[in-house]
Amino acid sequence: xxxxxxxxxxxxxxxxxxxxxxxxxxxxxxxxxxxxxxxxxxxxxxxxxxxxxxxxxxxxxxxxxxxxxxxxxxxxxxxxxxxxxxxxxxxxxxxxxxxxxxxxxxxxxxxxxxxxxxxxxxxxxxxxxxxxxxxxxxxxxxxxxxxxxxxxxxxxxxxxxxxxxxxxxxxxxxxxxxxxxxxxxxxxxxxxxxxxxxxxxxxxxxxxxxxxxxxxxxxxxxxxxxxxxxxxxxxxxxxxxxxxxxxxxxxxxxxxxxxxxxxxxxxxxxxxxxxxxxxxxxxxxxxxxxxxxxxxxxxxxxxxxxxxxxxxxxxxxxxxxxxxxxxxxxxxxxxxxxxxxxxxxxxxxxxxxxxxxxxxxxxxxxxxxxxxxxxxxxxxxxxxxxxxxxxxxxxxxxxxxxxxxxxxxxxxxxxxxxxxx
Length: 421
Fold this sequence. Notes:
Elements: H1 4-11, H2 18-23, E1 28-32, E2 42-46, E3 49-55, E4 61-65, E5 79-81, E6 84-86, E7 93-94, E8 99-102, E9 112-117, E10 120-121, E11 123-126, E12 129-132, H3 146-149, E13 155-162, H4 166-173, H5 190-193, H6 204-210, E14 215-221, E15 224-231, E16 237-246, E17 250-253, E18 263-271, E19 274-282, H7 290-295, H8 333-342, H9 360-377, E20 400-405, H10 410-419
Antiparallel strand pairs: 1-12, 2-3, 3-4, 4-10, 5-6, 6-7, 7-8, 8-9, 11-12, 13-19, 14-15, 15-16, 16-17, 16-20, 17-18, 18-19
């Protein structure tokens, strides 16, 4: 159990809050690349700040304050020009640094930049996503996660709006036990049958069903946490899954490409009561099939909202709970996850929870996050920041789903895989 003060520290992310200041030290997704046209600004809200995203004359993304510094007119209606975005009201032109551009037809001099302007944040584009850095000083290097660096045909990404605090959803990603219940199919679906676990002839769903009370262990890593889940399927061997918590609001875990890639969710606060979940999937070795590409978007609307939602009780079909899925909420785990995290309330009251031994990853990740928050408050740099381009290496993120011999130590097994990289 944590205190009210600790819960507030972990969940409040507006500008000036301790967690908000931590989050701003890292690159954060601002939008999907496909959302931002060359000739139309895109409104974006991040950490409670209302912003406008547009492409400059070179096609590069720029992120500035949404309301004109002159008289507060909404820049969503602004004109995109080669040198920036122009307010429709009095013609003030803002460049990609948020500064006002003054031209010779206004003043008897050459073009110059005026210090008056909007808040502005640098942007980079990678892996089909526009990232922004909202912190002080020079931006760190964007980590070269594999899902951002593989060829475009080998990856897919989408985003989904989730109506709860970011932390609830991220903690759900790193909680292995709920696979035994929330995501369990009562019999292998046709999609399940296409995914056999290396080292066995069984599906992940069937192996999870055979041992619903796994052993869960964690190791602290330079990027956050490595999480081991060990189940005994009853054949004298052990089913090992390895997932990861990554500072400060990201998780990597098993998905449809496990063995040649993995899935990742990046939970970015809109405000303290809602967030965008950016869902990535990739393969190191082959282009993704159209079926996999479509799967991460299934059951969402064009506005990146779930068709199954709190308003319609996530379309739960209680008859299907007898022979199809444990939850009765279809086979799409995004909706199942939304049910679990949204029904905790906009911000979960962690002072009233009762954690048990299987919640080790949750407890450990909170301790790491609180320590990182304190580091920033003390004027220190938080963990997992890369400052030199030469250090922009792929963090040692291993995602695993394998059946291994009973006498093999899971930690040593993973260290052996890591050494081969």
